[in-house]
Amino acid sequence: MSVLSALRHPIVAAPMAGGPSTPALVSAVSSAGGLGFLAAGMIDTGRLAADIAEVRAHTDRPFGVNVFLPGSGAVDEAAIRAYADRLAPHAGERGVSLGEPVGGDDGYPDKLAMLLADPVPVVSFVFGLPDRAAVAALRERGTEVWATVTRPDAATAAAELGVDAVVVQGTEAGGHRGGLPDDDDYGLLPMLRLAAAGCDRPLVAAGGVVDGPGVAAVLAAGATAAQLGTAFLRCPEAGSSPMHRAAVASSAPTALTRAYTGKRARGVVNDFLRRHDAAAPAGYPQVLHLTRPLIAAARRDGDASVPNLWAGQAHPLARDLPAAELVAEVSADARHALAAAAERASHWG
Ligand SMILES: Cc1cc2nc3c(=O)[nH]c(=O)nc-3n(C[C@H](O)[C@H](O)[C@H](O)COP(=O)(O)O)c2cc1C
Fold first, then answer.
1. What Rg, from alpha-carbon coordinates, does the chain have?
2. Does 183 score more than 80 pLDDT?
3. Distance between CA 227 and CA 231 in Å, rounded?
């Protein structure tokens, strides 16, 4: 039986790199009958191994690990230098220097080797599609492989690679766009329907889903489960900062921007985003490394006008609830929403 079909609730807690996805959040969601996900992005293998051990110590239910795939490495260095010149005075005002805009693969080969040596129930990939050999090697060890897509042709390509499930991310989603570079920003509903037409794998729907009626909607549109990120950011078990929690609880608008990391991501609009969005070049992880000391200094100063505040479009609906309660309530509310819709449908015609 697949991990998805064994879940008691059709809810996946999205992997959220940068702190929110603590082992406590992951184990609470998995123990509650959803699927918790560790985020392997932006940490080293030692920390990942410790996080996996902590999840295993607190739950015997399945959980996942999410891995960043490396990009092509090609960037416009002059554009990144120009962006550095633009940001340098801000860093100076805070008494820090900008970081070196270096490239990197986020330790992908080591993380993959670790997950092959000590398999976990599910590995999901983000920022492109994994190669066929990685998919086959993980599956041979009993690990389910999920791929993240943001365009319909990528869902078909993922199925052809032999993945077990496809995470379909709409543009409503908080955090980075998780797929191959896009020509279009597909909303979740068109992406789900187009992916369902071109791919025979279970679909996991991500983007702007924070409550039971939202989960009901994506299940009705063909998803097997919903992957919720922003909904969990206010849980006590999450590692979100107070500044991030306050932004999620606000009714401020969100926008997609390259301003913080050089890769488009959705966050709550603040002064930094407004001022630098139009000038920000593509270049991940170079721009991430460039802005990191400035963002860290603003966080230390308690200044929410600078740091990235990743959140999906429906963030004002996220609730401050323990993760297990959130999973149970969202699932029960989804059931009621589906029953109410079925009742309305029974009067048609
Ligand atoms: C703070 C934050 C960090 C994220 N980090 C990751 C990540 O490390 N890997 C990943 O695949 N997706 C990441 N995402 C995207 C989620 O997987 C998911 O697509 C998104 O949260 C769904 O939209 P929602 O936030 O509206 O629920 C992140 C999202 C947020 C809000």
1. 20
2. no
3. 10
Q: Is residue 206 lining ligand 1, measured as CB closer than 6 Å?
A: yes
What is the domain extent for residue 304?
74-104+242-318
**Look-up of token digits 């920003």:** 185
> Does residue 124 lie in a domain region?
yes
**Tens digit of each residue's pLDDT (9 = 90 or more) over 276-317:** 999 999 999 999 999 999 999 999 999 999 999 999 999 999
Are residue 59 and residue 163 in the same domain, yes or no?
Answer: yes
Which residue from 230, 256, 309 has its CB within 8 A of the most atoms of ligand 1, so it is best to mutate?
230
pLDDT band, residue 182 (cuts 50/70/90): confident
**Domain co-membership, 126 together with 254:** no
Does the Cβ of 175 fall within 6 Å of ligand 1?
Answer: yes
Residue 49 in any domain: the answer is yes
Q: What is the DSSP letter of 278?
A: G
Residues whose CB is less than 8 angstroms from the CB of residue 93 and which lie 6 or more positions away in sequence, other chains included: none
* Span from the CA of 16 to the centroid of ligand 1 (angstroms): 5
**Under 8 Å CB-to-CB from 235, ≥6 apart: which residues?**
25, 28, 320, 321, 322, 323, 326
User: Would you say the CB of residue 122 lies under 6 angstroms from ligand 1?
Assistant: no
User: What DSSP character marks residue 173?
Assistant: -
* Beta carbon of 311 within 6 Å of any ligand 1 atom: yes
Q: Which atom of ligand 1 is nearest to the CA of 210?
A: 27
